[in-house]
Design brief:
It comes from Durusdinium trenchii. With about 400 residues, this protein is mostly beta strands. It is about 0% helix and about 45% strand.
């Protein structure tokens, strides 16, 4: 089921984190290549400046990415041509005042942008705060606002949550061990705060996502030892259930038909669980594996698919958590799996993409593809192509690329 997030976008556009449905599914009837390499099945392959983990957002004829040049201390929006891969513009949003310390696997450009078909909204952590910058579709800055503090003290790992467009608002979370930790709803025209709901003063990284549960759209998110739901229009807490663990990074998924929502993580606890979207919102089932800390789960036809932190692929039956199969592949993993045409695509940090059938009957590997040396960003599937951000390391130098995989 596709939710309406109030986006003025094309049918096969990918306007924000996890796509138009919020479930990381390509459009119905879409296809994608199964095999590729540096020498095979690339429509184009463009070097991109700097370093970032944001996923490609694709609207109209443009592709939008963020990046950071750590030497120049700039955080920028990149605009590329969808057909040719040409880098059209690079607009600097911030210069200087980068966080003095982040996790070695994180970047200063990890949140994915959101696009409403008219403007692009980028979230950067800069000067101990979360800033939203609004750009037009050509990459020209419209406004920039300091929205909320972000100054963690205990774990200085950087930022990761992405902004989401829902009901005409831009929503994002900033959770840390200090005053201002919470979820924010921002007016997309003015950049002014519409609502703010406080969250526990403890570090977590998950993106709130609009899910259709109990007949209504609600923002659900994990982390800080709870599964919580909020009204996207007002920020009012709808319900909250003990579960999860302190820190999670993955975005929740949901099953509208069965009124279930699912989460996985985290630190220090390891869990995957299902919570009921109606009634008392009790935990239906919970188990210690798989543990998907940075990456999100994938729900297809009532079954959960995951490539866990340790590189083991899982299929769980959503209604009761029964393990349908497990298969050792390879980790570690940061990028989230996507679903295209009956298949799951998921890439590990060493830039190997595994393609396997989205079937509970048993594990069936379709292909294993290697492109580059490093991958943290989740791939975007549109146009019968895969838009794939990766990096190559040679002689101590690192170069990022955006590739269009497919004809």
């Amino acid at each position: 089921m596709v939710l309406s997030y109030g986006l003025a976008a094309h049918g096969e556009d990918w306007p924000q984190w996890r796509g138009p449905s919020g479930q990381n599914h390509a459009a119905t009837g879409a296809t994608a290549p199964e095999k590729w390499s540096a020498e095979e099945n690339l429509a184009w392959n463009t070097p991109i400046p700097g370093r970032g983990h944001s996923s490609p957002v694709i609207v109209g004829e443009r592709i939008y990415l963020t990046t950071c040049d750590e030497q120049a201390e700039t955080q920028s929006l990149l605009v590329l041509d969808r057909k040719t891969g040409e880098l059209l513009t690079q607009t600097v949003a911030h210069q200087g005042k980068l966080p003095p310390r982040i996790h070695g696997n994180n970047t200063h450009a990890s949140p994915t942008v959101a696009c409403d078909g008219k403007n692009v909204f980028a979230l950067f952590n800069n000067d101990l705060a979360c800033w939203i910058t609004k750009f037009d579709l050509d990459g020209k800055q419209v406004w920039q606002k300091r929205i909320a503090p972000f100054d963690p003290q205990q774990f200085r790992f950087g930022f990761g949550s992405s902004p989401i467009l829902v009901d005409g608002l831009l929503v994002f979370s900033t959770e840390f061990d200090g005053d201002g930790s919470g979820v924010y709803g921002i007016d997309t025209n003015s950049g002014e705060e519409v609502w703010h709901i406080a969250r526990p003063e403890s570090l977590s990284y998950s993106t709130p996502i609009p899910a259709k549960l109990d007949g209504k759209t609600q923002l659900v998110m994990s982390g800080n030892d709870r599964i919580a739901s909020y009204d996207p229009k007002t920020g009012r807490e709808l319900w909250s259930t003990p579960g999860s663990t302190k820190a999670t990074c993955g975005t929740m998924v949901w099953d509208t038909e069965r009124n279930l929502a699912f989460a996985s993580g985290g630190y220090p606890g390891s869990f995957t669980l299902a919570v009921r979207g109606t009634g008392d919102h009790d935990i239906v089932w919970e188990k210690g594996q798989p543990r998907c800390y940075e990456q999100s789960l994938l729900l297809v036809d009532g079954n959960l698919f995951a490539l866990a932190d340790n590189g083991i692929a899982f299929c769980l039956r959503g209604e009761d958590g029964e393990t349908m199969w497990r298969e050792r592949l390879d980790g570690p993993v940061s990028a989230s799996p996507i679903y295209v045409d009956g298949k799951v695509y998921v890439t590990n940090e060493e830039a190997t993409t595994f393609v396997f059938r989205a079937s509970p009957a048993g594990f069936e590997l379709v292909a294993e593809n290697k492109l580059g040396d490093e991958c943290f960003a989740t791939t975007t599937p549109v146009d019968g192509r895969l838009y794939h951000r990766y990096a190559v390391r040679r002689d101590g130098q690192r170069q990022e690329y955006l590739a269009a995989i497919g004809e």
